[in-house]
């Protein structure tokens, strides 16, 4: 039997470090420390010991024989060591000592009283011949008494006492008969020996430490590593499923048949047999003399445990259940619903990203690891345990199911059932160092015990004897992980819960907080320290600043124990799988979005698909239980989980009348004309219609275009059917509202819907504008108002050529149009705001620096250094800076967030404006940007698919506080701004700004926003802002890419960026088309070109003839370099909504196929058409 052994080379004292990190009780300890110079020293002294409050064991066997008890066995020393794990046992501390012919020994115990909480249950249990300390629960302890050769007299009803009686009767041979979770040390006084053991799979921890000395030196056992650091020369993790005696060494008592390579699976295992055994496992873990509850995440595993618990509790009793997450996270929403259905007394611990960052140190101290994945997932568990411990002492959890049924996403790539089973065996064997370590340490840090029924020995044996073919995922099999297990509870758990996708990388508790965690760590590790990481940490060298930060904290508590920490081969769970997992890697941890979203790309199917797949399961799946706990109870509404990531208040949805029965009836031509006129008002010249074509410069207008194929959400949209119906419904309210009513409409319906839909934090502000271009004037106004004495405002605009033409003009305080939205007078495009104030030196008031998106060869350029230099120069002379970056360019590229600007500081002079007008972001990303202090510009007329144009700027709470302190007289509001903004564009919380603006009503803007919000809210209701939707978009992109590669040789995919596919078009001669030619292609796509092709003598196939007359709207051309440009296929909110509504099949790409056919047709006749 081998165990991991680590020699200690302590660099700094454990206690001195604790004194810096924790406050706690004072205590003395004599420690033996091997200093970094290698010399052994003895020291006594006062030190700060962590005062923590769970059930833990400590045993010392010192071979230093003599008349006097050695220091290591003295009560004050043992109790002080126990104090280090005091949290494991807040109900008391016990101590006992003795001497045999081979050892002085001492036993220490921290008690968490679950069984027999009276004093009779206190440990150590000591008899003249035997003494024992134990951690955990022996569920079959009463049955084990019946196996004894003769009755015995017991001193308590504690499950741990049985260990002494079993040992007397059977020696070490009794250990395999224990059913439970346990770690214990037993002293045999008569024979001068001892026995230590750890449960089958490692639910309870145990460590063995050795120190050299006479007569075998010293051996120590402890529940936690922190008890042995500084006092042992070597430490080993005690292997699970093993016992140890000095005579035998390690003996493996748990060798399940299913771990053998030649194991033959049991065909007699049925769903009912599995379910019944799991119910028994749950019931036995409800054994307790104190209050207990359930960790209920809303995922399938914890819901199964909760379902099986409920019938075994009196109907009058409401079991407590607990959930953790960020506000309105998927877990919070799902758990809330299932708890209602089960009748649990449910409570929640809502945490924030800042709170998560604040407990990193505590988590690493208790967790005793630097493993990034484990630390991330332990943070919410820490909050959950802390919350639950206020009410109960024990909770059941759903841990372990994934290791038995292949619940991790990467199992969908398993090529065959042999490798599938082999991987199950591998990760099952590692549970004690990963999931179970998290479950034990985070609960025990708060004096709480976690019990795991899925890892019951009998149930595990049955589950692992099931033919792995029944667990596999993929074509011809189940389309959801753990479908076999889910199907066992069909009819007992609502379908929405039963087929809920497994959340990855902590995303179930909320999105965005892990990215905040990364930034927090990065800010605390210098570039210099990171560059020397390999020198400081040659073993398992950190590859990110997050890893480095965790490692640094770990090293401060557990010096030289880096090789002791369990790490997966390859740095993550899937790294050691026998099949390749290219995305589920250690490196993948760096990009949280890729890890949490991309991994589900191949495995996600919605509940309809999963249910359909389940219905095709083996015939063995009949009704498992006819006594469903859900009988007669209200079932979950179909949308209850759909709104987990897309929470919109009912008020906002009803306010826009999205319900089908409230939509406007078929409008008359006069009503259509009136609506179009209103939608055209209050905008710039880009919305003007050509008198002949009745189309604007983007070839659309404020009306629906029946028959048109639309993939133009990155440029401009026609009015959708839904938006049209809602707009007609609102027409009278908007057009006839008096000034007071209109102000309320803008504040509650428009601004309120934006805030609710994007889930903006309290205190944030929303300023509306006629377009996403016009809104760029606001940051300049803010900078000038907050720094009125500055000589100039420096404005830097990144990603030129991949943002709107007028953005740089507006960002620099210039007119971006020849007609202002709120003025009938003609204005020269490019005219500067300062000219209207008769300033003499216009050029020095606002300095604009434009930064191109790509170099001459089309490669994306990183301008981080240029921006940092300009910001530093501006600070040096007291000038404010506006840094305009882009979160989704025309090709959907994302500029890196400018680091080191200090934009989130209380008195920041740099304002980072993130142009998110493409609208291809999650609400978690918006929250993250606001958290960093960014100002965000959005529009309703691109991805949200509203009519042209509507804009808004989102202002973070801290900046809003600064603006609210300004007076109207101090504001910089040039006359030009009156041509763009009204009082109602600014929120009521900024009265100074409203006071300086005209009391006009931009009714056209209000209507355009209402139309856009109709589509956005419908998109949210359909689950558009979810991992499921992102997977569907990825599937769509893959399908369209395949279509291009197989059927359209003159069209090439240049880049795929989420919901935008950028395509290059080659002419008939094979040369790529540049932007001037692509503009002609774009125009030809928007009209029937049948007659043009006829004139040039083209002979068309039936498909080509159909393509020629089809109106296609796509994204306008973008210059990549001088040689070529691209055009774009872009999904908008209605497109993604349709993808979500047709989730049983691969995404339908017939629209894209038809568009591509027309593009190919134009390319084929490019010479004849004069391109």
From TrEMBL:
<dbReference type="GO" id="GO:0006529">
    <property type="term" value="P:asparagine biosynthetic process"/>
</dbReference>
<dbReference type="GO" id="GO:0005524">
    <property type="term" value="F:ATP binding"/>
</dbReference>
<dbReference type="InterPro" id="IPR006426">
    <property type="entry name" value="Asn_synth_AEB"/>
</dbReference>
<dbReference type="GO" id="GO:0005829">
    <property type="term" value="C:cytosol"/>
</dbReference>
<keyword id="KW-0436">Ligase</keyword>
<dbReference type="InterPro" id="IPR033738">
    <property type="entry name" value="AsnB_N"/>
</dbReference>
<dbReference type="InterPro" id="IPR050795">
    <property type="entry name" value="Asn_Synthetase"/>
</dbReference>
<keyword id="KW-0547">Nucleotide-binding</keyword>
<dbReference type="InterPro" id="IPR014729">
    <property type="entry name" value="Rossmann-like_a/b/a_fold"/>
</dbReference>
<dbReference type="InterPro" id="IPR017932">
    <property type="entry name" value="GATase_2_dom"/>
</dbReference>
<keyword id="KW-0061">Asparagine biosynthesis</keyword>
<keyword id="KW-0067">ATP-binding</keyword>
<dbReference type="GO" id="GO:0004066">
    <property type="term" value="F:asparagine synthase (glutamine-hydrolyzing) activity"/>
</dbReference>
<keyword id="KW-0315">Glutamine amidotransferase</keyword>
<feature type="domain" description="Glutamine amidotransferase type-2">
    <location>
        <begin position="55"/>
        <end position="249"/>
    </location>
</feature>
<dbReference type="InterPro" id="IPR029055">
    <property type="entry name" value="Ntn_hydrolases_N"/>
</dbReference>
<dbReference type="Pfam" id="PF13537">
    <property type="entry name" value="GATase_7"/>
</dbReference>
<keyword id="KW-0028">Amino-acid biosynthesis</keyword>
<protein>
    <recommendedName>
        <fullName>asparagine synthase (glutamine-hydrolyzing)</fullName>
        <ecNumber>6.3.5.4</ecNumber>
    </recommendedName>
</protein>
<dbReference type="Pfam" id="PF00733">
    <property type="entry name" value="Asn_synthase"/>
</dbReference>
<dbReference type="InterPro" id="IPR001962">
    <property type="entry name" value="Asn_synthase"/>
</dbReference>
<comment type="pathway">
    <text>Amino-acid biosynthesis.</text>
</comment>
């Amino acid at each position: 039997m081998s165990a991991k052994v680590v020699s200690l080379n302590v660099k700094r004292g454990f206690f001195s470090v604790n004194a810096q990190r924790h406050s706690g009780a004072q205590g003395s300890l004599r420690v033996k420390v091997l200093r970094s110079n290698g010399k052994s020293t003895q020291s006594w002294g006062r030190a700060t010991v962590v005062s923590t409050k769970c059930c833990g064991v400590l045993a010392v066997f010192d071979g230093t024989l003599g008349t006097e008890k050695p220091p290591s066995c003295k009560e004050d020393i043992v109790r002080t060591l126990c104090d280090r794990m005091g949290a494991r046992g807040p109900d008391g501390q016990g101590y006992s000592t003795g001497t045999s012919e081979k050892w002085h020994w001492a036993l220490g115990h921290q008690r968490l009283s679950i069984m027999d909480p009276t004093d009779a249950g206190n440990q150590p249990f000591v008899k003249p011949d035997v003494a024992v300390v134990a951690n955990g629960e022996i569920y079959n302890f009463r049955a084990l008494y019946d196996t004894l050769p003769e009755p015995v007299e017991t001193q308590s009803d504690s499950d741990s006492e049985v260990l002494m009686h079993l040992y007397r009767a059977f020696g070490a041979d009794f250990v395999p008969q224990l059913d439970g979770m346990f770690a214990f040390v037993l002293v045999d006084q008569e024979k001068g020996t001892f026995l230590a053991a750890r449960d089958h799979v490692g639910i309870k921890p145990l460590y063995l430490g050795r120190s050299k000395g006479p007569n075998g030196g010293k051996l120590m056992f402890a529940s936690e590593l922190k008890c042995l650091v500084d006092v042992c020369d070597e430490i080993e993790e005690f292997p699970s499923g093993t016992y140890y005696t000095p005579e035998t060494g390690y003996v493996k008592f748990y060798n399940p048949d299913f771990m053998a390579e030649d194991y033959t699976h049991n065909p007699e295992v049925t769903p009912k047999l599995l379910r019944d055994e799991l119910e028994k496992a749950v019931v036995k873990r409800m054994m307790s003399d104190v209050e207990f509850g359930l960790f209920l995440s809303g995922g399938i595993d914890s819901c199964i445990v909760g379902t099986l618990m409920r019938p075994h509790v009196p109907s009058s009793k409401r079991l407590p259940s607990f959930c953790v997450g960020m506000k309105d996270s998927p877990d919070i929403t799902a758990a809330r619903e299932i708890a209602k259905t089960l009748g649990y007394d449910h409570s929640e611990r809502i945490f924030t990203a800042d709170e998560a960052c604040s407990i990193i140190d505590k988590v690493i101290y208790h967790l005793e690891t630097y493993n990034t994945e484990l630390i991330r997932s332990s943070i919410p568990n820490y909050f959950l345990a802390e919350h639950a411990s206020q009410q109960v002492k024990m909770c059941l959890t759903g841990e372990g199911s994934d290791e038995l049924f292949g619940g991790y996403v990467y199992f969908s790539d398993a090529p065959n059932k042999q490798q599938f089973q082999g991987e199950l065996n591998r990760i099952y064997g590692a549970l004690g160092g990963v999931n179970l370590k998290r479950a034990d340490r985070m609960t025990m840090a708060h004096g709480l015990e976690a019990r795991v029924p899925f890892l019951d020995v009998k149930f595990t044996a049955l589950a692992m004897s099931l033919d792995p073919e029944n667990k596999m995922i993929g074509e011809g099999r189940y389309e959801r992980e753990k479908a076999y297990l889910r199907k066992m509870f069909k009819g007992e758990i609502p379908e929405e819960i039963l087929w809920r996708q497994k959340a990855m990388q902590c995303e179930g508790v909320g999105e965005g907080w892990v990215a905040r965690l990364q930034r927090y760590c990065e800010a605390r590790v210098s570039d210099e320290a990171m560059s020397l990481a390999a020198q400081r940490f040659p073993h398992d060298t950190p590859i990110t600043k997050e890893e480095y930060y965790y490692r640094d904290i770990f090293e401060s508590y557990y010096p030289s124990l880096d090789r002791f920490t369990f790490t997966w081969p390859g740095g993550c769970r899937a790294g050691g799988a026998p099949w390749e997992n290219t995305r589920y890697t250690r490196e993948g941890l760096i990009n949280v979005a890729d890890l949490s979203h991309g991994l589900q790309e191949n495995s996600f199917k919605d509940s309809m698909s999963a249910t359909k797949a389940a219905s095709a399961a083996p015939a063995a799946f009949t009704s498992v239980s006819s006594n469903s706990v859900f009988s007669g109870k209200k079932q979950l509404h179909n949308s209850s989980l759909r709104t987990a990531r897309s929470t919109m208040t009912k008020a906002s949805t009803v306010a826009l009348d999205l319900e089908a029965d409230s939509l406007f009836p078929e409008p008359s031509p006069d009503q259509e004309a009136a609506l179009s006129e209103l939608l055209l008002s209050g905008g710039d010249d880009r919305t003007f219609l050509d008198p002949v074509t009745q189309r604007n410069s983007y070839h659309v207008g404020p009306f629906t275009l029946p028959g048109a194929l639309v993939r133009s959400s990155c440029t401009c949209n026609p009015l959708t059917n839904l938006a049209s119906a809602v707009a007609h419904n609102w027409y009278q309210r908007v057009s006839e509202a008096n000034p007071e009513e209109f102000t309320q409409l803008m504040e509650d319906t428009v601004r309120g819907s934006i805030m609710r839909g994007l889930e903006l934090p309290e205190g944030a502000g929303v300023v509306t504008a006629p377009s996403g271009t016009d809104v760029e004037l606001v940051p300049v106004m803010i900078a000038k108002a907050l720094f009125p004495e500055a000589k100039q405002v420096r404005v830097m605009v990144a990603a030129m050529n991949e943002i709107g033409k007028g953005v740089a003009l507006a960002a620099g305080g210039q007119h971006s149009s020849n007609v202002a939205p709120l003025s009938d007078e003609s204005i020269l495009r490019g005219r500067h705001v300062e000219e209207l104030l008769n300033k003499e030196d216009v050029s020095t008031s606002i300095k604009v620096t434009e930064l191109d998106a790509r170099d001459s060869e089309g490669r994306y350029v990183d301008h981080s250094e240029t921006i940092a230099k300009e910001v530093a120069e501006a600070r040096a002379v007291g000038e404010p800076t506006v840094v305009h970056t882009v979160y989704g360019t025309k090709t959907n590229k994302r500029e890196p967030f400018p680091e080191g600007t200090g934009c989130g500081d209380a008195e920041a002079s740099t304002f980072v404006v993130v142009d998110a007008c493409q609208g291809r972001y999650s609400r978690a990303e918006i929250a993250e940007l606001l958290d960093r202090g960014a100002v965000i510009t959005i529009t309703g007329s691109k991805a949200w698919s509203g009519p042209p144009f509507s804009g808004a700027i989102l202002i973070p709470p801290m900046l809003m506080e600064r603006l609210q302190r300004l007076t109207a007289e101090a504001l910089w509001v040039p006359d030009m701004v009156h041509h763009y903004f009204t009082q109602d564009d600014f929120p009521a919380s900024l009265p100074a700004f409203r006071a300086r603006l005209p009391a006009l009503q931009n009714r056209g803007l209000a209507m355009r926003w209402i139309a856009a919000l109709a589509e956005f809210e419908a998109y949210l209701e359909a689950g558009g802002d979810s991992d499921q939707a992102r997977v569907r978009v990825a599937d769509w992109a893959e399908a369209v890419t395949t279509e291009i590669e197989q059927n359209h040789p003159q069209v090439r995919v240049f880049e795929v960026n989420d919901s935008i596919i950028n395509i290059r078009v080659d002419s008939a001669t094979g040369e790529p088309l540049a932007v001037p030619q692509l503009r002609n292609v774009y125009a030809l796509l928007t009209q029937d070109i049948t007659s043009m092709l006829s004139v040039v003598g083209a002979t068309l196939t039936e498909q080509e003839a159909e393509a020629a007359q089809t109106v296609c709207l796509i994204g306008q051309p973008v210059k990549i370099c001088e040689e070529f440009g691209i055009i774009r296929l872009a999904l908008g909110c209605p497109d993604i909504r349709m993808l979500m509504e047709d989730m049983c099949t691969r995404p339908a790409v017939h629209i894209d196929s038809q568009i591509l056919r027309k593009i190919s047709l134009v390319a084929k006749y490019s010479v004849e058409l004069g391109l």
